[in-house]
Fold this protein.
Amino acid sequence: MSGPPLLELRGIVVRAGGRAILDVPELALAAAGVTAVLGANGAGKTTLLRVGGALIRPSAGDVLLDGAPATPAAIRRVSAAVLQRPLLRRATVRENAETGLRFHRVPRGEARRRAEEWLERLGVAHLAHRGAHTLSAGEAQRVSLARALALSPRLLLLDEPFANLDAPTRGELLVDLGEALAATGAAALLVTHDRHEAAALAEHLAILHAGELRQTGPTARVWAHPADADCARILGYDTVLEPEVAGRIMPNGGRPLALRAEDCAAAPPGTAGNGSALTISARLRRVLPLGSTSRVVAELDGRRLLATAPAPAPEWLAALGPGDPIDIRLEPERARPVGRRSTLREWR
Amino acid sequence: MDVIWDALRDAVELLFSGDGETFEIIALSLRISLTATAIAFAVGLPLGMLLAFGSFRGRRLALAAVHTGMGMPPVVVGLIVTVALWRSGPLGGLELLYTPSAMIVAQAAIGTPLVAGISAAALQQVDPDFRVQMQALGASRLRSLWAVAVEARLPLLAAVMAGFGAAVSEVGAAMMVGGNIAGETRVLTTAAVLETSKGNLALAVALGLILLLLAFAVNLVLTLAQQRGRP
């Protein structure tokens, strides 16, 4: 990272009703690229985004712009946020897209040109004369994004931009937004509960759990090396085995092991696997068909362990009942040792 | 039945005969009530914003007080304004009693709680995140408030209409602080009361009809502005 980061949060604490709902010791955003904050619902993502955009004042801590403390007005001048629900004015689509530009006193003609350009890029130019309240959720979200992008902000703040969209709409918008973000060259802070959206758009990942920032780093590294069990679950590791159980499967240095269901294959009990694979002897609980694969829910020392099998379930699996022994196989490098519960301060 | 037919005939005659006194009364009614409505809006809207978005001790108490004011009897308002403007009263030096200005003050006082109360409800109806979103696009605090007001323009115009309706229709306060002086402070409502008491029922009903027509005309303009773009 050359030069100071565009935006930096330091020692941010937000309290509500007497308890801390957000605790971010440090989070820095480079001048370009997307940083995703990943967390479950209620983890404090929206609060974090609003602190970053100077839309709420933290109970403690500083927000730095270009390495120096900045006023809320200064931060808002260079940033634009897209809140979770598309909040459009009761006006036409084009007037909505011009809104931010008019707030920034951009002359009417130029505002119109820039608004139309971004409506075009997000594929909603044909709706320009429609009333904003007649749009579908997907269209409204595109207009909302165009409205923010038209400002050419140095910092774009995106709060769950794909929430409330159906799967096909979400997929299309994901591609279009990725291209739009690359085109602007702006820095973006994306908060989401969806790890796939985060992985698709962000170079950097931060994980928020119960208001605490637990882990930050390049996406690939965070993805493969969760700092702790909570981070592992947020990143889609379905199973986290406790150290004692994990130690019986592979040497783990006394650490928990995180596994993804798709890396764990169900196999008939007692059969030999190939050379390197680990075999875990478990008991079957049930099989859930997921369409293209089957999810196998197994049990190991009273703990749930998820694995994958082909769909429809093979004969041997269909013949098994709840409580029958079953083998789970996985490549050792797919089992990720994770830290014991840690805060970011300890982890770093 | 004759009374009604006479009244209708009188009303048409009054309107189309170019009777100077009638037009003076109509013009004064309009001038006083429109000015009062403008003042009620200028005071009531910011007050409504404060009650809707402010966070201060006693906000709910103030809101309840405003809601009470929405149903304030004009006679009580007239009494308060009269006492305030009485020669020996706190504002007696202004010598406003029995002038159109006093009537404007009284009608504005009647309209302001209506505008404030309806405005507060209208503004709170807008999604609270709407204002945050406007600020997140670069709007200042004041500009974002204005954006919320524009968003709530339909119910805000309803607030204006309620304010005007209360102002133009009240008679108690106009009578008390204006005095119903011919050519000076006589408006449609006070003239109608006077004609009724004199037994000129036809003329009184005619004045009432003109008042209704006037109120309809003003509300038609406001409604057309409110419902622009809809059939």
Confidence is low (pLDDT under 50) at residues 343-348 of chain A. Chain A has twelve helices and 18 strands. Residues 7-224 of chain A form a domain with the Rossmann fold fold (CATH 3.40.50.300).
